[in-house]
Amino acid sequence: MSNMDNIPFNPDTQNSSNAALILAALERVGESFRVMLWEQAKEYGLSPIQVQSLIFLHTHDERMATVTYLSKEFNVTKATMSDVVKVLTEKKLLVKKDNPADSRVQVLKLTSQGKKVAAATGGFANTMLEQIGQLTERQQTEIKTILLNLIHQLYREKIITMQRMCFTCVHFSTAGNKHFCNLLQIPLTPDHLRLDCPEHDQKPEPLS
């Protein structure tokens, strides 16, 4: 057996394994995402992680607006995220404010210009969104379910460190193949499952 036979990026492997082909296809989609993000970032003289940070701060609650939280969100070190924040501060796209709830932590707030840049760059992946929007509702639901389960597995393997999805929330319960949100008091059908829930409360990690 060739030492390339188990490499999913080998075309021969993909031809004999749907799993390998799907993995390679996801890599292509991820690369497309990175290209669109990079092109948008260059337009504003920013790096991709700087643009992602602006968009995140613009679209999420203030309790998540700290260097520590952002470093976990984007799987980078606190030192790296501190550098990102320093540059965005120097460009007058965000400011640091004292946190009345914790004097040891500063809250990051977008300036008016930062909000404008975040709003302008937030649609960098709209081309991909339009393509997905052309799928049927059933196709979208099926893909959504598959991706949520895949992301949950990656989280459980500690490859992804921060998730605000139903499966990792203390309010999530399951009985057989049925899911339920104990906070909203609603059954969670595939259409109701969330990837990024504002009410998410992290479930404690199981003891190993």
List its traits.
single chain; 208 residues; mainly alpha; three-stranded antiparallel beta sheet; two-stranded antiparallel ribbon; 8 helices; 5 strands; globular
Q: In words, what does this structure look like?
A:
This protein is mainly alpha-helical and 208 residues long. It is built from 8 helices and 5 strands; from the N terminus they run αααααββαααβββ. Strands 3-4-5 form a 3-stranded antiparallel beta sheet, with no helix packed on it. Strand 3 (172-175) and strand 4 form a beta hairpin. Helix 2 (18-43) packs across helix 3 and helix 4 (67-73) packs across helix 5. The longest helix is centred in the first third of the chain and has 26 residues, at 18-43. The chain is globular.
Outline of the structure:
The chain is mostly helical and 208 residues long. The chain has 8 helices and 5 strands; from the N terminus they run H-H-H-H-H-E-E-H-H-H-E-E-E.
What is the strand content? 5-15%
Whole-angstrom Rg: 20 Å
Q: Roughly how much helix do the residues carry, as a percent range?
A: 40-55%
Question: What does the average pLDDT come to?
Answer: 91
Secondary-structure-based class equals mainly alpha
Could you spell the SSE succession in H and E letters? Answer: HHHHHEEHHHEEE
